[in-house]
Amino acid sequence: MTVQKHLGEQSVRFEKPPTILSxxxxxxxKEGKGPLASYFDLILDDILWGEDTWEKAETKLLxxxxxxxxxxxxxxxxxxxxxxxxxxxxxxxxxxxxMRELKRPFLGLYGACSTMAESMALGAMMIDGGYADYxxxxxxxxHSSAEKQFRSPLQLGTQRPLTASxxxxxxxxxxxxxxxxxxxxxxxxxxxVVDFGIKDPMNMGAxxxxxxxxTMIQHFIDTNRKPEDYDLIVTGDLGSVGKQLVIEMANEQGxxxxxxxxxxxxxxxxADTQDTHAGGSGCACAGVxxxxxxxxxxxxxxxxxxxxxxxxxxxSPLSTQQGESIPGIAHAVVIESSLE
Length: 340
Hints:
Peroxisomal Thiolase, Chain A, domain 1, single chain, six-stranded mixed sheet, alpha/beta, seven-stranded mixed sheet
């Protein structure tokens, strides 16, 4: 029986849900000292990883994470029909430079820190549509390359306000397949750009909250599901400031998130000992928390049904300098251990 694929305003239901065949996560030294350390496949001792620039180190992170995910899937790189990936740097240089060596068909994505979900949603659509058998979805970020581009040179030692988050150094990658025994991507909700006029680049969590809540609630409406239908609802990198705002905004619209909601930016660092202020951010925040912690806990059946909503702030250094506000976006994917 053919199922209705397009649901409501912004969601899709997959007729033949793709499997997450494998995953890989690589993180930097600071992330490797956080509470999720045991879940990551590789923890670096050196944030430069033997390279002479932070940007080259980020390229290496992404390339190695993709290669590891493909190896974990027990297939060859030549079997990957498309790679969907992106990062935070201008013209996606971390990703595109990695693609020079991987030599696979490539679609570059810019969803800022929502890129992990964007790659998974689009990859799932391509597989469900019959356009591919194997697809990689991936993303990366690097604390030092992001600070250099978006904020202040690290050498200045600029004081960070308590609302600031810490860009995660790392990369996460998944291999999606039309075959497999799960976990499965069953739904996706594509977000809209939402802008509440926040202009402070040191409060990224607050700037992305409206988009996160908008996508989350639209997902519930489109799919006729409720928060309690999920074992875990997790946003991308809103941190402690953003997480509380999400709970409050959702509650105002009649959705109780008090029992099963968290944020990757809250989970990846220890707020008391690691001095990350509001928590984690960056594309890799959601990327490695998902490919490390969440997927491995799904293997243990701690979580069987997850609503994963990475969030992105769509700013550039130029837009901030020109006084523009910070638009946000969030994409959601549903991952389920089994098909009912």
